[in-house]
Amino acid sequence: MLQVSVVVPCFNETEVIDAFHASLITALEPTGQTFEICYVDDGSRDRTRWQLRELTRSDPRVRYTSFSRNFGKEAAMLAGLRMSRGQAVVLMDADLQHPPELVPRMLELHRHGYDQVVAQRDRTGEGVLRTALSRIYYRLVRRCMDVEVVDGAGDFRLLSRHAVDSVLSLPESNRFSKGIFSWIGFDTAGFTYRNVRRAAGHSKWGGRNLLNYGIDGLLSFNSRPLRLAIHTGLWLFLSALAYALWIITNVALNGVDAPGYTSLMTGIVGLSGIQLATLGIIGEYVGRIYHETKHRPHYVVRETDASPGPLPSGGPSASSVGQARSES
Ligand code: UDP
Ligand code: MG
Fold it and tell me: Which atom of ligand 1 lies at the shortest distance from residue 204's CA?
């Protein structure tokens, strides 16, 4: 029985992938457990795919899947989880920001009966602004989300087979894995490690991506923004009513008085802004519904270690979506 699978999404990681692989092997071999490493090439435009192919050829414990284009890290992690066959599955980044030396410790905790083990990083060496922004964001998220998301607890974690099956049983196409991992529950253990910088190459996350990721996180797990829109609307309505009463009283007492261009304009512009933002929120949810109803596969596979060269059916994702449909 295969004991451990390590799932590694890679996007343009030519510069680090060999170093990563070497240090992962060095960390795993002394544990004496049987393991496999599942690399997922997320449509890299550099030599990553060839390197993975090479690693697979030279080491039978390595497997890989390569996407036809860049589908994003969430899709890559999903593909990796689907590929994995081990009793425990470790998810980690290829850039050595998730130190492979910590994997044995995670396996140890797993042996003590935890279904999820999270390695949580601190924020050493990160920009002041970014740290502050994420802190505010997590405080906000904790207030309005139904699942608990912890600052710094990213995708470096171990899942038991049971937990992996639960993750794979969630069919949504908008995948926000931080939320999903928390949603499935199970006994979770964790420890903190010192944040390290990327070994080589550069991060694929710009400010804009992070902002979108943040919005995704807020919207994926609840409908509270809609509730907020209703509350705002009600409060505005009540204040408008009060204001109208005040004006009417004023007119009744002091006679007709026409000025008020400034307050009128302010009112119109302010209200239009709120309306547009609310429409945007609603639109975002409708867009998600539209996206989900299309039942598209999460990714398209170009090749895997089992079948180098393009797959005729569009890969495992396409076939599993087909099954899901015929069952329902
Ligand atoms: N990654 C991916 N697809 C993407 C972007 C990133 O598979 O579209 C992988 C990347 O190769 C790395 C991990 O996700 O293994 C984390 O990416 P990165 O280091 O750029 O993010 P950061 O650590 O800056 O959050
Ligand atoms: Mg990184």
Answer: 20
CB of 10 closer than 6 angstroms to any ligand 1 atom: yes
CA 150 / ligand 2 centre spacing (Å): 18
197 CB neighbour count, 10 Å cutoff = 12
> Ligand 1 test: best mutation among 18, 23, 65, 73, most atoms within 8 Å of CB?
73
* Ligand closest to CA 154: 1
User: Which protein residue's CA is at the shortest distance from atom 18 of ligand 1?
Assistant: 203
Pick the CATH number of 4-205+297-327 from 3.60.15.10, 3.90.79.10, 3.30.300.30, 3.90.550.10: 3.90.550.10
Count Cβ atoms below 10 Å from residue 111 Cβ, excluding itself.
10
pLDDT digits (tens, 9 = 90+) for 72-119: 888 999 999 999 999 999 999 998 889 999 999 999 999 999 999 998
Q: Quote the CA–CA distance of 55 and 143 in Å, as a whole number.
A: 45
186-230 confidence digits (pLDDT tens): 888 888 888 877 777 777 666 677 777 777 777 777 777 788 888
